[in-house]
Write a structure and sequence with these properties.
Elements: H1 2-6, H2 13-19, H3 22-41
């Protein structure tokens, strides 16, 4: 969960830990992985 807060995704602690469901956190982590992979390809 912390990687979402510390990344470029602009998510804050309250959003990740109190407002997002476990499924939303999983999907956000997948999106972050895809973003990092695309960024590294450039």
């Amino acid at each position: 969960m912390w990687r979402l807060i510390l990344s470029d995704m602009s998510l804050d602690y309250n959003t990740v830990f109190h407002q997002m469901s476990e499924e939303e956190i999983i999907m956000a982590n997948i999106a972050l992985d895809m973003y990092i992979k695309a960024k590294n390809k450039k």
